Request: fold
Amino acid sequence: ASQPIDKKDIVLVASVINTTNPYMASMIQGAQALSKKLGVPLQIVDSEGSSQTEISKIQAILAQGKKVALMVNTVASSDAPTIVNAVKAAGGYVSIWWNKPDDYEPWNVGNNFVAFQKYSGVQSGECTANALAKSLNGKGNIVALAGVQDSTTSQTRVAGLKEALKAYPNIHLLDTQPANWDPQQALQVTQSLLAKYGNQVNGVWSADDGMTVGSIQAVQNAGRINDVKFASDGLYPPEIKDMQDHMGNDAIVGETFHRGYMAAAIGLYTAYQAATGAIDPSKLPHEKRDSLFQLECVTPQNLSDYTKYDDPNYISSWMDSLIKDGPWNTPPTPLVAGGPEKLP
Amino acid sequence: MTNAPLAPATGLHTPALRLTNVVKSFGAVQAVRNVSLEVPRNEVVGLIGENGAGKSTLLKILTGLHQPDSGTIEAHGRRVNFRRPQDAVAAGIGVVHQEQSLLTNLSVAENIAMNALSSKDAATRYGIYRWSRLNREAAQVLARVGSSVDPRTTVGDLSFVDRQMVEIARALRVDEAVHASPLVILDEPTSVLERSETEILEREIRALKRIGSVLFVSHRLDEILRICDRVIVMRHGQVVADRRREEVTEDDLFRLMVGKEATARTRQKAAQNPAAPVIEVRGLGRRGSFKDISFSLSPGSCLAIVGAMGSGRESVSRALFGAEPFDSGTIEIAGKPARSWSIRRAVRSGLAYIPAERKVEGMVGGLSAAENLALAHPGPAAWGPFLKRREQAKGAAEWFERLDVRPRDPRLPLGSFSGGNQQKVVLAKWLSAKESKVLVLDHPLRGLDPGAAQTVNEQIRTAQSGGAAVVLLPDTLEEALEMGDQVLVMRDGEVTARFDLSTDSPTSLDLLEKMV
Amino acid sequence: MTDNAVLQPEPLSAAPPTPKGPTRPRRAGIWRSIGPLAVFVALLVLVAVLTPTFLTGGGLGILTVTAAPILLVALGQAMVLNVGSIDLSNAALVVFSAMVLAQTLGPLAAAAPLLTLALMTLIGAANGFLIAFGQIPSFALTLGTLGILQAASLEVSHATTVYATANTDLLAPLFGTALAGLPLAFWVGVVCAVLLWAALRFTRAGQGVTAVGLNESGALFSGLRTRWLKVAAFALSGLMSGLAGILVIAQAGAASSFGLGSDLLLPGITAAILGGTAITGGVTNPLNIVFGALTVGLVPIGATSVGINPQAQSLVYGLVIIVAVALTMGRKRAGVVK
Amino acid sequence: MTEKVSGPRLLEPQPANRGPEARPHRRLQLKSLGEVAALIALIVVFAALNPTSFLTPQNMRTILELASLPLVVGVGSTLVILTGSIDLSVEGVMGAGGMTFVLLTANSRGTADLGFWALPAALLVGMGLGLLIGLVHTALKVPSFIVSLGTWFIGLGIATLLYGDSGIPFLSDAALKSWPTRLTIGLPNAFLLAAVIVLAGIAVTRFTRLGRFAYAIGNNEEIARANGIPVGRYKVYIFVAAGACSAAAGILASLQLGQGSSTVGNGNLFTTIAAVVIGGTSLGGGRGGILRTAVGVLMLTVLNNGLILSGVSPNLQSAVSGAVLIAAVLAAAWPHRSRLRIVK
Ligand SMILES: Nc1ncnc2c1ncn2[C@@H]1O[C@H](COP(=O)(O)OP(=O)(O)OP(=O)(O)O)[C@@H](O)[C@H]1O
Ligand SMILES: Nc1ncnc2c1ncn2[C@@H]1O[C@H](COP(=O)(O)OP(=O)(O)OP(=O)(O)O)[C@@H](O)[C@H]1O
Ligand SMILES: [Mg+2]
Ligand SMILES: [Mg+2]
Reply:
C-alpha cells in the first residue's frame, strides 16, 4: 500500500499520441484546464505515435523523482503493463485511457494502476450505424472506413457497426477499408470506393470524425454530397458547423459525442485523487477501475444540446463540476458500465 | 581568377606559363616541392618523371583542381590564382587528365562544351541549351582530331579510344572559348591510345604549336623526343632537369628520371619446356565476340595476344579469368577442366588478372595497400577465417621494398597512390601469392614510367621463372615480340596468325599486317 | 629561369619523400573514432545540467532501455550500409519477429527465441539473396519485403495484439537484470557491437564486406564471393532484427503490427550514421554505433526531461540530428558526399 | 590577353572509322519500354478483374487525381535523385507548406487572407527548407540522407507549431476547395497542375543547364567539378526546386482536404521514392528521368486503386503491392543480369 502524496509534490502528466490530431489537441486542453483548476503543475508527453517514445518519455519524467498523477492515452494496448510498472516503481499513480490488454486489470496490479477508462467502441458503432440506417430508411448501400488495422478502438467500433446492421437486412455494407485515422488517406480511399461502386454508395461510415472530413471532401468532389449520408464517432466542431448548415441536405446524420478534454480530465483527476489519498483504489468496485463512460448519440435533431460543450467558458465550469461530482458522475459523461468491453 | 594590379604587357618573350616555387603537400606527402618552370609560347614542353614524381599533381594545380600551398603561377605574364577549373579555362588552359574525366551519361557534345556551358556561353541562353548549336560546334572540334563520332552519342556508349579522342577534342576547345593563345595540357594522353591514334594526336599537337603551347606528359620517351621541343624532368616532386630536345637522348632522360642506367632490354626466351601445360585452351568461343581460340602454355612461357581495337582479345582475356562467359570450347588449368567458370573459380585455380581499368576492377582504393595485397590470396596473412594484420603489414612492406613503391607506407589507402605505384601494388597482389599459376595481363605497363615498367617486367619474368605462365595483352607490338614466346594475332574475334617465337621471328610489320 | 637553365639533378642517393610515420592517418582518425562518443557525452551533459535529476534518477537506465532495440537494428543496418546497400524492411522484421516469438514462446519455451532468430536470419538472407543474385536495388527490394512483412504480421496476428502467455520469465532478465546499473538488454547490444567490430576487423569475411562496400568490382576481381558477402550482411541484419524482436517481447510481453518496434527504421538508420557509418558503403564502426543509438534515444527523452514544448520537439529533434551528424561524420573521405 | 588569334583550322576534317561501339543517340530508349509495358499489364489485369468499374471514366479520373500528389513530389525527388542525393524531407515540407498556405488563405481561424499571395508564400517556405538542406549538405558535407531526414522533422515541427492548439483551420472558400477536382478539358485540375509541373520538369532536364548538370553531377561529382560545374551551387538549386515541389504538393493536398493539417504529407515519401525506383531512375544518380517517375507513379496508383477495386483483403494489400514491386524490379533487372553488374 502506498502513502498519500502531498499536493505540493504532485505533478500531473498527460501523455497523448500526438499533438496534431484534434482529439489529442482537445485532450491537452482538458489537461491544462484541470491543472489550472487544481493549481497543480502539468507536463505533456507527446508519444509521436510511437510506443517506444511514449514509454521512454514517461520514464524520463519519472526519473526526475517527481510524484506523478498520470493519464496515458496509450499508443498500443501492449504499452500499458510497461508504463504501469514504471509508474508503480516510481510510486506514482496512473490511469490508462483507451487501450490495454483485456485481462490486465488494475485490481491485479495494485493501487498505483488506478483505473482503465474508455468509451465503448461497440456502442459508438451501433449508435452511428443506427443513425445511418435510419436516414437511409433501412435500405441502401454503405462503405466503412476503419482506423489503423491493429487498433482495438477501430475494431470495436466496426464490430458495433456490423452488429447494428443486423437489424437492417436491406442495408448492405459494400466494403470496409482502413484509412489509418488519416483524413488524406480517407479522401483517397473514398475516391477509389466511389469509383468502384459508383452511385451505389448511399452512405459512408467512418471510425472517427477525422476520416469523415476526408470522405466528405471526396463525395463533394464527386458531386454527390446531396445523395450520400455520413456517420462517425466524435462530432468535431467542423462537423457541428456542417450539421448546423445542413450541408448536403443534412448529409451528416449521426455522430457520437465525447470530448478529449473530458477524457483527459477524468483520467488525470482519477489518478490525482488516488495520489492525494482522496480515494483508495483498492476499495473501489471493479467497474470504477475498468470503466466505460457515457457516450451520447447525436443527430441533426438533438444537435443543439451539444453545441455548448465547445465553449471555452463551459470547459472551465465543466472542470468545476468534475471536481465537485468526481470522475464517475460528471454529466454528460458519467460512468455507465464496467469493462472489459465485450464484442457482440 | 585575380589579376595582379601590375599586369605586365604581353611581350613577345613572355612565356605562356611560368611557375615559381610551387609547393603542394597532401598531409605528410610532399607531392610537389618547390617547382619552378616555364612553358614558352609556341612550344611543346614534355614533362616526364617517375610514377609519383608529382606530375599529375602539378597539372591539377594548373587546372584549378588543387590549390598550391605556396608559389605563384603566371599565365601570359599575369599572376593567376585558379580557384576553380573554370578559372583555368578562362585563362585559356585546356586539359586532358590522366584519368578519363568524361561524364559518361551525357552526350559527346555536352562533354566537349561542358567547361564553357558552366560559364556564360553561346551554346546556352538564360540557362537553356541550344542543342543544334552545341552539336554543330562539337562536330567541328571532333573533326579537328579526326574523329567522326556523332556528337549526340552518349559517351558511355563509346569505346575507350573514342572517349580519349573526345577528351582531346574538349581540351582543344579552349582556344575557341578564349580568343587568346591557348595552353593545352595533356597528362599521358597516349597511354591508352594505339599507334594510329597517337599519330593523329601528334599531328594535332604540332599544329597546335602554331597558335599556342602544349605541356605534354608521357612515359614513352621516344614519343617525347619526337614531339617536344623541350623536356622537363621531375623527380620526388622537384624539377631536376630542363633540357632542349637536341641536348638529350632517350638514355639521358631515363637516367635523369630514374637515377640509374637503363638495363639492356634483352630477354632469354624460355627454353622449350617439356613440362605439362599449366593452361590449355581449346576452341574457346563466345557468340558475337570471339571464336575458336586455342593455345597451350607450359610453365614459364608467355603468350602475347595482339590485335587492334575491337579484335576481341580483351574479351578472350576476360573469359579466361571468368569475368565474361564463353559458350563453346574448354579451358584446362593444370590438367583440370574449368567447370561453371567464374572469377572466384579462376582465382582459386591460380589465375591472376590485371585489368585495363585498374581503378575500377583492379583494386579497392578505399582499403590500404597492405589490405589490397592480401585480398585475393592472403597466404600467411590469414589464419583460417581470421586475418593476421601484422603478417599482412610485414608481407606488404617486403613487396613495397621489392617493387620500390612510393610512398613507402602500405597502410595508406591504395587510392591515394599515383597510378604507376597503384599498378605495382596490383601486380604484387598476384605475384605475392604462390597460388598464381597463370597471369592474365591486360596492358600491365600502361601508365608506368620506364623505370617502373622495367621493375614490373622483371617481376613478371621472375614469376615466369618460378613456373607461372603469362597471357599478355601488350601495349605495343615490340613488347609482344620482346616478352612473348608465342604470339596470337586477332582480328574481328578470330585468330589470323600464330607465331612461335622459338622458331619464327616475325617483325612488327608482319604482325600489323595480320591485324588490319 | 631562362630557356637553357639546367637544374642539377638531385643527388641520386636522396631519400624519397616518405611520410613521417603513421601520424597522418591516425590524426585524421581520432575525431572519427571518438566523435560519436563526444557528441553523446556533450548532449548528456547538456541535459544533466538543465535537469540535474536526470542522471541521479536513473536517466541512463531509461535511456539504455530505449536505446537497446535501436542499437540492435542500427547494427544490422550498418552491416547492410557497409556493403553499399540499405535495408528498409528491418523494422517490419522486428515486429514480425516479436509476433512469431509471442506465439511460439508458450509451446516451445527456450527453443522459441532460437527458432525466431533462425527464421529472421533466413528472411534477411532471402532479402540479400534476391538482391545479390537477382541484381536488383536493395532500396526497391526491401521496400517490397517491408510490405510483405507488414501483411504477414497482420495475418499472423489477425490484426490484433498478440500476447506471449507463458514462459515470459525466460526473457525477464533482459530488462529485469541490471549490470553496472544498465539493463542486460543494452549489454546484449553492446556485445553484438563488439563482436561485429571484431568480425569486421579481424576476419577475412569482414575485410571482404568492407571491400565490397568500397568497390564491389575490385572485390569481385580479387576473387571474393561478393554476392555471398552481401547475403551475409543482410542475414546479419535479419538476425539483429530478430534480437530486437525478442527485446520487444521481453519489454512488453506482446506484439502488434503497428506497435512497439514498428517505427525503428529511421532511428536505426540515424543511429548508424551518427555512429559514423557512411551511406555510400565501406565505412562503419559498430562500437561507435553504440553511441549513435544512445544519442538517437537521448534526444526525445532529453527534450522531455528538459521540458521543451511538445509541439516544438520534432523541430528540436531534426536540428539536433543534423548538427550531431555534421559533428560526427568522418570528413576525411568526404570528397564526394551524396 | 588582348590579342585575338583567329586560329587556322588546325586539321582538315578527316574521315575516320567509327568505333565499333559507337551508337548514335536514340530518342526513344528501348529500355524504358519495360516499365510502360508493366503499367499496361497492370491496367489490363485490373480491367479484366473489374470489368465494370476499373476502366470507367470516373475511375480513370480518380486514378489521375490520386496520382497528382506523388507526381508533383516526384518531379522534385527525381531531380534530387538524379544528382545522386536523396530528399527525405517531403512529408515535413508538405506539412509546413500546406499549413502556411491554409493559414494565409481565408480560413475558419481567420488568421490572415493574402489571397493569391498565400501561394508564393507557401512555396517560399518549401524553398527555404530546400535551401536549408542544400546549404547544410554542400557546405558542411553532411549526407543529404541525414540532412533531409532532419529537415523532415523540422518541417513537421514548423507545421505543428503553426497548427498550434486553436482547432482545425478550414478553408472558407468552397470554390477553392473544389478546385482540384473540377474538370477542365475533361481532366481534374489537380492532375492538370501535376502534368504541367511534370512537363516543366521534363523540359528542365532536357533543355536547361540545371537539368543537364543534375545528370552530370549524378554521373560523377568529381568529374563534374573538374568540368567546371559549380556542383555545390547546382545541388542547392535542385534542393530548392525539390522544396518548391513538396510545398506545391502540400498546397494541393490541403486544397483537396479542404483543411490545414500538419500531417497532410503522410505516406507520400515512400510512395514517391518507390515510384522513382520502379520507373527506373537509379538511386545512384545520373540515370533515369522525370517521365520514368511519372510512369512509376501511375503504376503504383493503378495498383493501389486496383487492389481496392478488386476487393483484396486490406491486410494483404501491402503484401500484394510489395510483391508487385519486387516482381517489377526483378523483371526489369533480369535481362541486364551479368556477372559483373554492380547493383547497390
Ligand atoms: N589526393 C591525394 N592525396 C594524397 N596523396 C596524393 C594525392 N594525389 C597525389 N598524391 C601523392 O602525391 C604524389 C605525386 O602523385 P602524382 O599523381 O602527381 O604523380 P605522377 O607523377 O603523376 O605519377 P604517375 O606517373 O604515376 O601518374 C604521390 O606520392 C601520390 O601518392
Ligand atoms: N547531344 C545530345 N544529347 C542528348 N540529347 C540530345 C542531343 N542532341 C539532341 N538531343 C535531343 O534531341 C532533340 C533534337 O535535337 P536536334 O539537335 O536533332 O534538333 P534539330 O531538330 O536538329 O534542331 P534545329 O532544328 O535547331 O537544328 C533535342 O531537343 C534534344 O532533346
Ligand atoms: Mg600522373
Ligand atoms: Mg537539326
About this structure: The radius of gyration of chain B is 24 Å. The mean pLDDT of chain B is 84. Chain B touches chain C through 58 residues (CB under 8 Å). Residues 195-211 of chain B form the longest helix (17 residues).
